[in-house]
Design a protein that fits this description.
Elements (H helix, E strand, L loop, with lengths): L1 H6 L4 H5 L5 H8 L7 H11 L4 H4 L6 H18 L2 H18 L2 H17 L3 H14 L5 H17 L3 H15 L5 H17 L3 H14 L6 H17 L3 H17 L3 H17 L3 H18 L2 H17 L3 H15 L5 H17 L3 H17 L3 H17 L3 H16 L2
């Protein structure tokens, strides 16, 4: 206040106006009194600055510009302007740290974490989201939500499914009874995909249904969109296809309104995945090609590999084996730049099915076993069971009955584990 008042050539009496005394302004400037937020807003108006300018040492108006820079960087990242977004986030972090501004420091680190995920680096993302949450450790969960959900996503991408669920459960317990609707919605929705991967479809459905009950209370459009995107996975896994399509349509509309291009592509991917499981392969192919086009445009490598892998399976089911094999090859090349254990297992499984269709028994067996090893390492029970069913059927077709029984037993054991 003292610096800003002096720069403007005002007296203490002029800043005090008719609501306060000159002596009170003097005591605030001298560090003897701490005004309330309402009083601070009054003094800010007298000094013609934003109230934020009195809490931190930024030049007048600078914090407002930094907040806008965070918002602009979010859109830029989703469009694939990764370098520009990262430079903006880094600048925000530098200035916020210099001013002791934990709120903006948090926002900048969350942005950098999202950029790391976008580029396929979940290790770095996890570290950044953890740093961000630590800055606001004393704040309510709602204030730390982006960092918590970001950590869950990073754990999931690293194949640490159990850790993602533990994180969600711990924060849900902390939020119980606190009326933090957005936080509860987001955490329950984010729990869906790890639960599905662990084969806990009933629990995943319950988490999705509970999140949908809370959804009308959530006001933040991006939180809603992300939640709807997650929820569709449980609904799809349970065969509730019409409902899954409804929540995906809501997510798509919200992301289009927010101009988040990569996230629009994610919704098209999910619609393609849903159509494939409903048996509508032409619609699935159209949606997946659109998603792949978006991810190519926005330079989102992990999501591009997901889309191309799913597209390869859809193409294979339409007996275009050479094209399917070519798509898997492109996935393997793209995936060399980062590590995603679940993607690697999925590519092995698709290649195994292509080998099966081509009559290459030895290659098929080797690839199925590699896929199972990958899924087992990350405890992806749902995928273990699905792979065992496919592998067992293939073994039966070759007359290898005893081996098929052992593989089917492996899938059942995975599903029956406590």
């Amino acid at each position: 206040m003292l610096r800003l008042r002096t720069e403007r050539g005002l007296t203490q009496a002029q800043v005090a106006g008719t609501s306060f005394t000159r002596a009170y302004v003097s005591s605030v400037e001298g560090g003897k009194r701490t005004p309330s937020r309402r009083t601070t807003a009054y003094f800010a108006s007298r000094l013609s600055v934003d109230p934020d300018d009195l809490f931190f040492g930024y030049e007048a108006g600078r914090r407002k510009k930094l907040r806008q820079a965070v918002a602009d960087a979010r859109t830029a990242l989703s469009r694939g302007e990764i370098e520009r977004a990262c430079e903006a986030y880094q600048q925000v972090v530098r200035e916020a740290d210099a001013q002791g501004d934990s709120e903006l420091g948090y926002a900048g680190r969350c942005g950098l974490g999202a950029a790391a995920r976008h580029q396929g680096d979940p290790d770095r993302a996890l570290g950044l989201f953890r740093e961000a949450e630590e800055l606001l450790a004393a704040q309510p969960l709602t204030s730390r939500l982006q960092a918590v959900v970001g950590q869950m996503g990073a754990h999931f991408a690293r194949g640490e499914i159990a850790q993602a669920l533990v994180l969600a459960e711990r924060h849900l317990l902390a939020a119980a009874g606190t009326d933090q609707d957005a936080a509860e919605f987001a955490l329950r929705a984010a729990s869906v995909m790890p639960l599905v991967e662990r084969g806990e479809l009933k629990e995943a459905g319950m988490a999705a249904d509970k999140a949908l009950e809370i959804a009308p209370l959530v006001k933040e459009p991006e939180v809603l969109a992300q939640g709807y995107y997650h929820i569709n996975r449980a609904l799809t896994a349970q065969g509730r296809c019409d409902q899954a399509e409804q929540v995906l349509s809501r997510a798509l509309a919200l992301y289009e309104h927010l101009s988040l291009r990569t996230e629009v592509g994610m919704c098209h991917f999910a619609l393609g995945y849903l159509a494939a499981r409903s048996g509508d392969l032409p619609v699935a192919e159209t949606s997946l090609r659109l998603a792949a086009s978006v991810f190519t445009e926005t330079k989102s490598r992990p999501r591009l590999v997901n889309a191309l892998a799913e597209l390869a399976e859809v193409v294979r089911q339409q007996d275009r084996l050479e094209e399917a094999a070519s798509l898997v090859g492109k996935c393997r090349v793209a995936a060399r730049e980062y590590q995603d254990p679940e993607q690697a297992a999925e590519l092995d499984r698709i290649d195994a099915l292509i080998a099966l269709d081509q009559g290459e028994e030895a290659a098929c067996v080797s690839l199925f076993r590699s896929a199972l090893a990958g899924y087992t390492d990350i405890e992806a029970v749902y995928e273990i069971a699905a792979t065992c069913r496919l592998f067992g059927d293939a073994l039966l077709g070759w007359g290898r009955v005893q081996e098929a029984a052992e593989v089917f037993r492996q899938g059942l054991t995975a599903l029956e584990r406590p």
